[in-house]
Design a protein that fits this description.
Bound molecules: nicotinamide-adenine-dinucleotide
CATH superfamily of the largest domain: Dihydrodipicolinate Reductase, domain 2
Number of helices: 9
Order of helices and strands: EHEEHEHEHEHEHEEEEEEHEEEHHE
CATH architecture of the largest domain: 2-Layer Sandwich
CATH class of the largest domain: Alpha Beta
Largest sheet: 9 strands, mixed
Radius of gyration: 23 Å
Number of strands: 17
Strand order of the largest sheet: 16-13-12-11-7-10-9-8-17
Structural class: alpha/beta
Helix content: 25-40%
Amino acid sequence: MKKDIGIAIVGHGFMGHEHEKMLLDFPGIKLIGFSDIDPKQLEDVTEGLKRYASNEELMADPEVDVVLIAANNKFHKDLVIQAANAKKDIICEKPIAMSLEELDEMEAAVKANGVKFTIHHQRRFDPDFRTAKAVYDSGTLGDIYCVKSMLYGFNGNMHDWHVFISEGGGMLYDWGVHLLDQLCWMFPGAKLTSVFADIRNVINKEVDDYFQIMMRFDNGVTATLELGTYFLTDKMHDKWFERHWFIGGNQGSAYIDGFGPEGKIVRTDGLLKNVGGQRTMTAAGPTRSFGPPPEGKILTEDLPEVNTNHRNYFENYVKAWHGEEEFLVKIPETRRVLRLMDAVRESGRTGKSIDFE
Ligand SMILES: NC(=O)c1ccc[n+]([C@@H]2O[C@H](COP(=O)([O-])OP(=O)(O)OC[C@H]3O[C@@H](n4cnc5c(N)ncnc54)[C@H](O)[C@@H]3O)[C@@H](O)[C@H]2O)c1
């Protein structure tokens, strides 16, 4: 019988609690305990789990096979190196590091100690993303020219350490890293040739809370990512403040709204039957290309069904730890996303497009 993997977690904050809920009763995993630099954070650790007096004590525990690092971004580097030197395997929260130089040091320690190292990019299993990926992979839209990934919120103020640049705060490090990871992972083998970005602090003093990033891939897709934390409207449908995707191809489009995705694949009768443009009268005058389509011209099909959730991340982890499959999230992929975030910042600063690959 395979052994249960002993996992201990550094940091019992927002994400530490989420991991606790997920891993308390997870097949193949034995959750062992938590450390936290703030002892108050350990007060509500589940009865029966260990509350370590220090990170050192956690890393020295022979029951622990894997250290899961769920502390603030600026500590990822030191904690990964410490865990590697303690010969523990490592899962680190995103973003993997605050810079490529930090990642170099982390990888050197991981390599020197021969431990397993991966990153918690569980949003590769988000149902909205997997639906978009399934549409792309199916080829049903023909040649895809655009993929738009959007996330809007109303509560633009960032909180706690997320308001400080020095702590690794800001939305690019927070959600941005997930959304970029999704787009990079969506088109395997495609080169990302150039990046153009606008990145701003709309209502936050120090850190970014809005960005638009345009990425050209050599598979013909231009992907656009827009995230606004303070993107207000009062006439939204009930999924407005959630996720949105639009995928455009030469055989149709798809739209996907919401974290629990709703949407359609859309085609036009006109295109399919090669019917010429019709005159439509709008409040801004007549047009043959725009305005509402006549009855019956828009045909819809259901989106592909996907069945994924964040538990799938740890299901993969357990199998991969035992050598039965590969870890889904590979370090070179996260290095590429870290490089991409540097390019995004450079483009935002200079106003210029950046050649990437
Ligand atoms: N994958 C995801 O979806 C997701 C979601 C949220 C946060 N995160 C990541 O999780 C990490 C934690 O974020 P959070 O929102 O939970 O923050 P948080 O502030 O809520 O929790 C961090 C906890 O770590 C503790 N801590 C800080 N430095 C430490 C150290 N050196 N040693 C031990 N404990 C330490 C803090 O006291 C706090 O209890 C970040 O890297 C963040 O990017 C990931």
